[in-house]
Amino acid sequence: MDLEQILRDTRTVAIVGASANPARASHEVWTYLKSVSDYEVYLVNPTVSEVDGTPVYPSLAELPVVPDLVDVFRRREHLPAVLEETIAVGAKVLWLQLGLRDEQVARDGAAAGLQVVMDRCLKVDHARLLG
User: Fold this and answer.
1) pLDDT band for position 79 (50/70/90)?
2) CATH number assigned to the domain comprising residue 115
3) How many domains does the chain contain in total?
4) pTM of this structure
5) Strand (E) positions, the chain?
6) What region holds the CoA-binding domain (predicted)?
7) Residue pLDDT, tens place only, 35-56
């Protein structure tokens, strides 16, 4: 899997599990992407309505666009549901952040035509490959 190609082909990113807490990794990745990348970044979390003035959407289905890449900050038990949502909206890439790995989700995602990246930090890889 060519991470650099995935990052170059990506135009829109949805961060699932976005947090308003600046100490959380999802907040750090969002802040980084909006400041240094050309990506349109959308935040998704049903329990938060906005982060620093940016609207947060309750689900992928409610985004105004189809995200190219879905960056996931959720506990492992939530990954199958996030995968279903990712497939349903027509995204191309499911990116599981550092520490997230689920072989069944990866197989199911690949079978549905998704590129699945596991246990990688989008911020770190973007900085390393495109920074």
Assistant:
1) very high
2) 3.40.50.720
3) 1
4) 0.97
5) 12-16, 40-44, 50-51, 54-57, 69-72, 93-96, 115-117
6) 6-100
7) 999 999 999 999 999 999 999 9
